[in-house]
Amino acid sequence: MPIYQAPTRDTKFILNEVLRLESFAHLPGFESATTDLTDAVIEEAARFCEEVAAPLNLSGDAEGCTRHPDGSVSTPAGFREAFGKYREGGWGALSVPEAQGGQGLPHVMGFVFEEYLAAANQSFAMYPGLTNGAIAAITVAGSDTLKAKYLPKMVAGEWLGTMNLTEPHCGTDLGLIRTRAVPQLDGSYAITGTKIFISAGEHDLTDNIIHLVLAKTPGAPKSSKGISLFLVPKVMVNEDGTLGARNAVSCGAIEHKMGIHGNATCVMNYDGATGWMVGPENKGLAAMFVMMNAARLGVGLQGVAQGEVAYQNGASYAKERRQGRALTGSADPTQKADPLIVHPDVRRMLMDAKATIEGLRALALWLGLQVDLAHAAATAEERAAADDMIGLLTPVIKGYGSDRGYAVATDMQQIWGGHGYIVENGMDQFVRDARIAMIYEGANGVQAMDLVGRKLGGNGGRAIAAFFAEVDAECAGAPEGLTAIAGKVAKANGELKAATLWLMQNAQGHPNNAGAGAYAYMTITGIVALGLMWLRMGKVAAAGLASGEGDKAFYEAKLITARYYAERFLPDAGALRRKIEAGAEAMMALPAEAFG
Amino acid sequence: MPIYQAPTRDTKFILNEVLRLESFAHLPGFESATTDLTDAVIEEAARFCEEVAAPLNLSGDAEGCTRHPDGSVSTPAGFREAFGKYREGGWGALSVPEAQGGQGLPHVMGFVFEEYLAAANQSFAMYPGLTNGAIAAITVAGSDTLKAKYLPKMVAGEWLGTMNLTEPHCGTDLGLIRTRAVPQLDGSYAITGTKIFISAGEHDLTDNIIHLVLAKTPGAPKSSKGISLFLVPKVMVNEDGTLGARNAVSCGAIEHKMGIHGNATCVMNYDGATGWMVGPENKGLAAMFVMMNAARLGVGLQGVAQGEVAYQNGASYAKERRQGRALTGSADPTQKADPLIVHPDVRRMLMDAKATIEGLRALALWLGLQVDLAHAAATAEERAAADDMIGLLTPVIKGYGSDRGYAVATDMQQIWGGHGYIVENGMDQFVRDARIAMIYEGANGVQAMDLVGRKLGGNGGRAIAAFFAEVDAECAGAPEGLTAIAGKVAKANGELKAATLWLMQNAQGHPNNAGAGAYAYMTITGIVALGLMWLRMGKVAAAGLASGEGDKAFYEAKLITARYYAERFLPDAGALRRKIEAGAEAMMALPAEAFG
Questions:
Q1: With contact defined as beta carbons under 8 Å apart, do B486 and B535 qualify?
Q2: B326: helix, coil or strand?
Q3: pLDDT bracket for residue B417 (50, 70, 90)
Q4: Residue A404 contacts B where some CB pair is shorter than 8 Å
Q5: For B8-65+76-133, which CATH class?
Q6: pLDDT tens digit string along A441-459?
Q7: Which of the four, A251, A477, A527, B248, has the lowest number of CB atoms within 10 Å?
Q8: Residue B32: pLDDT band by 50, 70, 90 thresholds?
Q9: Closest Cα to residue A503, out of A517, A492, A483, A490?
Q10: Which CATH architecture has domain B157-282?
Q11: Which residues contact A184 (CB under 8 A, 6 or more apart)?
């Protein structure tokens, strides 16, 4: 069975040494987040994910979910018990304020747990996975009545939330949705329509499920300007908080998918189900985006997570499996063959994985900290700066993070050779599970367009300018020993600046030039952002080594990996810039009939 | 259900206009290969693959193979009937000389059919897939008795062949194999051991299966210098050619795999099975390499094939599915949304696919022609030159071809969004099936080492020098209108030359530098080789347009795609060269404990 050990050492390095969480102790929400406490939470999180969630991953994939004739859905064996422990542990409410019944830790701690849980068992993680986003959307836009009735149970993990956007004929283009919401005399709405691809739409983990559903009221404007958001419980909730009758919403089918077999992906039928509007009429997308942005960051973390667990199993096999001899002579003459890890091309895949995953983790946790700072920083400027960075880099961590997670999972499967193709060894599950992260919560091409079409120019390009400045400052301030790496990061940042300039000059009148370059632009941004992270980690590691204290081998590995990243990833920035500058002409020239 | 239409127009373009097959009519083996005949064979091949093999692809994936308690194996419904038609059509012996009972067409025609069949149904294609290689190995190294007894039935498709190398503890490192072959008084050998991952090791398509098995004779040298090759029939063959008793070889299990579910991947148990040596003792690898080289070219074709069929289904969805509006304004205001194909990022994936697949097809068929020329060209020099090019580019078409096939399949699944993740739509099968081509017949990292460690320096670097010269000549001779593309190809070729020089200067004393750069080197070579192909195709298309005859839209698409390839693929060569020049230092610096 595949292994999983939560990377607690790396997490603590990032939180304590790179982000220096304790330095924010004066801010609201950080008061209790001492290193002692966060370290203890990290260890507890690791234990839960390793001991409870991970052992159900392979079996959950094999068994999948079962929909019964009455529309009820059974999750794989063990999931229900595991979820009981999750609820008891209060894991769902780690970053929910204490006033709301949560644990009141910073959001960045929620990110840590999200990564571990998705690595241990992505299908399991997806059951509670959207609930925090639903809580956030209801908190921001819901009426006091809705908040009082639903939030405490959701925070407690007694009820879970879902997100209902997609319909058979529309996913990305939400303006086309057909689900109708007809107002009733009591202020509720009767919701009718079919939603598909609803993760955890039905299951046996909780007594109730709280669906957040996009629908159109009668006479609403066509297009996405006429969409409202509704809260639709699976089971009606009485005034006293007890459960009442079943609502007219049911699971019509569960999908057969490439991966995440342990999660029930449901077709949800709304047959005049009772729902309540969340936020103003026709402004449902704004509230839903609160939920979606959280989900997109979560999907980025899934990329890190699937990459990490695949990497651990790739590394373990590379150290155990013996095949061939080192090019430099037998590394272990007492044995008939050397371990795979002596071979440079196996190393290449392991180092690619290590550089990617540790870099993405640093980026994700840094963004997690920005989520906290966007709420809690002392000045409006700081809060806006944090918010800018979240907006700019959410599509990047989602898109680039999930792309890289899939690539790493594929490489780690490759290390296993033919044995990686055999289902029982679990390596193919990492690839199949990682694949969905590139698709859902906005396909990665949509993320790229969000970055280039919306985030780049917002507020006069303030966010990207701040990002450039941050990278430049880090490069300029690089200590001796890191100047070579800093030079390569600065060069890649220069490519990103050139690509930005090109888009500014060539995409205004020719929007297809923006579309044609968007994906490459998202990728360069990811490459540079990880360069920034490696520079920061390298700096901390160098200082640690100079101090003579701490974990020498760990710091040395960070420095080597920073160098490897600079040598092996940053060169792509130039090639990508040239692709962007090629523009849309050849890409768009052919008539549709020329394809296929 | 997914569609598949064999790309006959493109095949004919390559054979008739780019390779100009008729110009070789004076050579032995080409006499009958008139355009009339080859065009007719192409159409017949398309019909068989579209009408017989393709309809069983999705159902074969869903059903898989079944091993019964007696060790027999049932293939998916319809496979047996389809194979009957395959045998009747003589498809297995297309390129086998008429003297041996085949159809006597050039090998390149066999390549055409291999691509179509693997695209239509890779699992099905793999049943007869290794038989031609087995025929070649027996023809080259087998005794006259073995040839007379086995080849006619194999050529006729009545018996199929398999390749038995891998054992549980060794795949790439064949020196470690443990299967024993003990000589018997009658000149046969008793073979004992376990082989795994044996494609089509057992099935119900034919009465007999001819296994080619690597084993060690008593006292054979350890290492790969002590391996012999044996022919082991599933059912003993009497002197009169009728079938006798079952041999002591049986299928112990079939694997559960990520993909190619319709093909039975078997654990084969040899319990003192009777076999006959093929070729000299301890020289079994040489004979097996005849088979393996054919198999590697076939795997490269699988990359083309899975990319092609995925592309067709990606393109068809992009033209039908409506979502969002073109960035330049509604492309189809009569509908509520425009088709996906108006979006540049969808186009990007389609153009990437088109440029990749058509380029790889040209490369594969050019290599197929080299296989013919290596046998039939008029002079020893020409034959050696063809052989050099096959040796050099076999690892490239296998490694780069399968990498790109997987990438294209993944992109085409991406176009389908969430619907691409649903098994019934078939897009995920293309990804899962394409994945194996990167692993089997020598994992792609092994191909890269074969290229850099063996092929590059062979005969004083004669092959790569010839390749450089061929690219340079094509660039120098580019007509007006193609000079921009030629300039980019020449630049990429320059990067490849620089990388070659760096390896010559830095890998001799430091072999890890070769290992560290091998994969990137293989990839640049693939990129440049496709650049060469696009230049050639572009040249023919430009001439066709100038002539005013032929299919104008087709030629225009070729020219646009050549330009797109140059703009969007060739820039990577420089980035890859820089990665090679980074060397092995950072890659190999960390101790094994630093991983995982």
A1: yes
A2: coil
A3: very high
A4: no
A5: mainly alpha
A6: 999 999 999 999 999 999 9
A7: A477
A8: confident
A9: A517
A10: Beta Barrel (2.40)
A11: A190, A274
pLDDT single digits (tens) B421-469: 999 999 999 999 999 999 999 999 999 999 999 999 999 999 999 999 9
The pLDDT mean for chain B works out to 97
Which chain B positions have a beta carbon within 8 Å of A440's beta carbon? 418
Say which residues have a Cβ less than 8 Å from residue A107's Cβ, sequence separation at least 6: A95, A368, A369, A371, A372
Residue A171 near chain B (CB below 8 Å): yes
A247: DSSP letter: P
Nearest residue in chain B measured CA to CA from A574: B575
Q: Tokens 């093999």 correspond to what residue?
A: B53
Beta strands in A184-341 (DSSP E): 189-199, 208-215, 228-233, 235-237, 243-246, 249-254, 265-278
| Residue B418 touches partner A, C-beta closer than 8 Å | yes
Give the Cα separation of A212 and B542 in Å (integer).
57
Cα dihedral B484, B485, B486, B490 sign: positive
The verdict on whether A567 is a catalytic residue reads no
Give me the half-sphere count of Cα atoms (radius 13 Å) on the Cβ side of residue B195. 30
**Residue A348 · residue A91 · CB < 8 Å:** no
How is chain A split into domains, by residue range?
8-65+76-133, 157-282, 460-589
Q: Would the CB atoms of B553 and A594 count as touching at under 8 Å?
A: yes
Handedness of CA A244, A247, A252, A254 (dihedral sign): negative
Q: What burial class does residue A16 get, using C-beta atoms within 10 Å of its C-beta: 0-12 exposed, 13-18 middle, 19+ buried? A: middle
- Show the CA angle centred on residue A181, arms to residues A176 and A186, nearest 5°: 165
Q: B-chain residues within 8 Å CB-CB of A315?
A: 595-596
- CB atoms < 10 A from the CB of B194, how many? 17
CB contact under 8 A, A515 and B255: no
B572: contact with A, CB 8 A cutoff = yes
Task: Using the Cα atoms of residue A268, residue A271, residue A272 and residue A274 in order, give the sign of their dihedral.
Answer: negative
What is d(CA B202, CA B71) in angstroms, rounded to the nearest whole number? 8
Cα distance between residue A84 and residue B583, in whole Å: 51
Q: Is the pLDDT of residue A56 over 90?
A: yes
The pLDDT mean for chain A works out to 97
ipTM above 0.90, yes or no: yes
Chain B neighbors of A61, CB-CB under 8 A: none
Quote the minimal CA–CA distance from A166 to chain B in Å.
9
Residue pair B126/B260 in contact by the 8 Å Cβ criterion: yes
A150 in Cβ contact with A159 (< 8 Å)? yes
Determine the distance in angstroms separating the CA of A86 from the nearest CA of chain B, rounded to an integer. Answer: 26
> Tokens 């069975």 label which residue?
A1
With a CB cutoff of 8 Å and minimum separation 6, the contacts of A460 are: none
Residues 303-342 of A with CB under 8 A from B: 311-312, 314-316, 318-319, 322-324, 327-328, 336-337, 339, 341
Residues of A with CB below 8 A from B350's CB? Answer: 595
Contact between A271 and A248 (Cβ < 8 Å) = yes
* Active-site hit among A441, A495, A581, A593: A441
Longest dimension (CA), chain B: 83
Tokens 């969805």: give the residue: B317
**Rounded mean pLDDT, B540-544:** 97
Give residue for tokens 């080849």: B151
Report helix, strand and coil shares of chain B as percent, to nearest 5: 60, 15, 25
Cβ–Cβ below 8 Å for B592 and A255: no
- Listing DSSP states for A174-202 in one string gives GGG---EEEE-TTS-EEEEEEEEEEETSS
From the list B172, B557, B560, the residue facing A324 with the nearest CB is: B172
Minimal Cα–Cα distance from B303 to chain A, Å?
A: 16
